[in-house]
C-alpha cells in the first residue's frame, strides 16, 4: 500500500484527534523572563525562606525533557498569580515597595529575579504576568516538543506544567500508544517534516486520525503502552543511578559526568576506565577494578534486557495499531 492509500485508509478508520479530545494546546507562556524557570536547588532555597511559596513553584516539562515514552520535570516555574503581590504585601503599596518587601520576606526569590528587573518598569508587578490556566494540568497530559528531530511523545505526571516549546493534549495510555506507533509517525512525517525537523504544531497533530476501537481493543493498546512506559522509566532509572554512582565514587565534589560517562552502557570496561580518567583525572583503583567490572557488566546486561523488552512490546503495539487502522505492516 502506497503512502496516499495508507493515509486514506487511516482517515477512514477514525476521526481527527482534535474531534476526539479537543485541539491540542501549546505549552504555558510566554514568560516575562526566563528567570521564572528555576532548578530544584533554587526552588528549595526559596521555599526554606518562605514555605507559603511552595504551591507557586510548579514542576515544568521543557522541550528538552521530553523523550520517547517518558518525560522528566527537573525544573520548576515560579507561578505568582495576579493579585499575589497585593495579597502578600498589602493592597496599598506600589510595585517598587513590593519589590523591596520581597527582598525582606524571601531574599532567594528576589535575588533570583533581580537580573530581570532592569528589563521591566519599576511601576509594574511584572512577576505576576505569567498567569497560565493550571487547572488543565491536574490530570496527566500527552506532551511533545513542537520542533523535534524524532518521535517523542510522553505522558506527564498530574500537576506538571507543559513548558515553552512544548504542546499537549488530554492524556491516556491509549492515545500515547497511537501517537508512538510506527504508523502514526509515518502519517505525521508526511504532514510535519520541514527539512530535518518535524514541526508538530497543535493543528497538525489535531488532524491525525485516531482509530475507532472497542473496549477490548483500547485495553490491549493501553496495556502495551503502559508496559513500554514502565520499562522505559526503569531503564532511565538504571542509567541515572549508575551514572550518579560513577560521579559519587570517582568524581570530585560538584563534578558532572560529561557526555561519555552519561552513556556508560556503550563503553567496554577499559573504555569506561579511560573515560573516568579523562573526566576526573584518575583511574579506578586497582583493588576496585574487578568488582567494578562485574557491576558494569551486570548493569549493561540489565539495560540490554530492558531495551529488548521495549522493542518486543513496541512491535506488538505496532501490530495492534495497524489492525485498528486496517493497514498492513507500515515499514
Summarize the structure.
With 331 residues, the chain is α+β, with helices and mostly antiparallel strands.
Q: What's the total count of β strands?
A: 15
Here the CATH topology of the largest domain equals Adenine-n6-DNA-methyltransferase TaqI, Chain A, domain 2
Number of domains: 2
Q: What is the number of helices?
A: 13
Mean pLDDT, rounded to whole units? 94
Q: Report strand %.
A: 5-15%
Instruction: Return residue spans where pLDDT drops below 50 for at least 5 consecutive residues.
Output: none
Please supply descriptive tags for the structure shown above.
single chain, 331 residues, alpha+beta, Adenine-n6-DNA-methyltransferase TaqI, Chain A, domain 2, 13 helices
Q: Could you explain how this protein is built, in words?
A:
- The chain has 331 residues and is of the alpha+beta class.
- It folds into two domains: 3-79 and 130-209, Alpha-Beta Complex (Adenine-n6-DNA-methyltransferase TaqI, Chain A, domain 2), CATH 3.90.220.10; 215-325.
- The chain contains 13 helices and 15 strands.
- The chain has helices at 3-12, 17-21, 40-49, 84-89, 95-105, 107-117, 173-179, 182-192, 202-206, 215-250, 258-262, 269-280, 286-325, and strands spanning 14-16, 25-26, 37-39, 57-61, 66-67, 70-71, 75-78, 141-145, 147-148, 153-155, 161-162, 166-170, 193-194, 197-199, 209-211.
- The strands form five sheets. Strands 2-12-8-10 form a four-stranded antiparallel beta sheet, covered by helices on one side. It has a four-stranded mixed beta sheet with strand order 3-7-4-11. Strands 9-14-13 form a three-stranded antiparallel beta sheet.
- α7 crosses α10.
- The longest helix has 40 residues, at 286-325.
- The N and C termini lie close together (11 Å).
- The model has no long low-confidence stretch (mean pLDDT 94).
Amino acid at each position: 500500500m502506497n503512502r496516499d492509500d495508507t493515509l486514506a485508509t487511516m482517515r477512514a478508520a477514525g476521526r481527527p484527534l482534535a474531534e476526539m479530545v479537543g485541539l491540542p494546546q501549546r505549552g504555558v507562556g510566554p514568560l516575562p523572563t526566563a528567570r521564572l524557570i528555576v532548578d530544584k536547588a533554587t526552588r528549595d532555597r526559596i521555599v526554606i525562606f518562605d514555605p507559603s511559596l511552595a504551591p507557586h513553584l510548579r514542576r515544568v516539562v521543557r522541550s528538552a525533557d521530553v523523550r520517547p515514552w517518558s518525560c522528566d520535570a527537573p525544573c520548576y516555574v515560579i507561578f505568582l498569580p495576579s493579585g499575589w503581590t497585593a495579597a502578600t504585601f498589602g493592597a496599598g503599596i506600589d510595585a517598587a515597595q513590593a519589590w523591596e518587601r520581597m527582598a525582606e520576606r524571601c531574599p532567594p526569590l528576589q535575588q533570583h529575579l533581580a537580573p530581570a528587573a532592569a528589563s521591566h518598569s519599576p511601576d509594574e508587578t511584572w512577576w505576576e504576568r505569567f498567569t497560565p490556566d493550571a487547572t488543565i494540568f491536574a490530570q496527566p497530559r500527552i506532551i511533545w516538543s513542537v520542533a523535534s528531530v524524532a518521535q517523542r511523545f510522553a505522558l506527564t505526571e498530574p500537576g506538571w506544567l507543559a513548558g515553552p516549546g512544548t504542546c499537549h493534549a488530554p492524556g491516556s495510555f491509549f492515545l500515547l500508544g497511537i501517537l508512538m506507533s510506527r504508523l502514526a509517525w509515518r502519517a505525521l512525517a508526511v504532514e510535519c517534516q520541514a527539512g530535518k525537523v518535524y514541526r508538530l504544531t497543535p493543528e497538525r497533530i489535531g488532524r491525525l486520525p485516531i482509530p475507532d476501537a472497542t473496549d477490548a481493543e483500547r485495553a490491549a493498546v493501553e496495556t502495551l503502552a503502559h508496559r513500554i512506559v514502565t520499562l522505559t522509566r526503569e531503564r532511565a532509572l538504571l542509567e541515572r543511578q549508575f551514572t550518579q554512582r560513577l560521579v559519587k565514587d570517582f568524581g570530585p565534589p560538584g563534578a558532572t559526568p560529561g557526555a561519555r560517562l552519561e552513556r556508560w552502557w556503550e563503553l567496554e570496561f577499559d573504555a569506561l576506565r579511560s573515560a573516568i580518567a579523562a573526566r576526573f583525572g584518575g583511574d579506578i583503583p586497582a583493588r576496585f577494578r574487578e568488582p567494578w567490572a562485574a557491576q558494569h557488566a551486570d548493569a549493561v546486561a540489565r539495560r540490554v534486557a530492558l531495551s529488548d523488552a521495549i522493542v518486543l512490546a513496541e512491535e506488538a503495539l505496532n501490530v495492534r495499531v495497524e489492525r485498528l487502522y486496517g493497514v498492513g505492516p507500515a515499514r
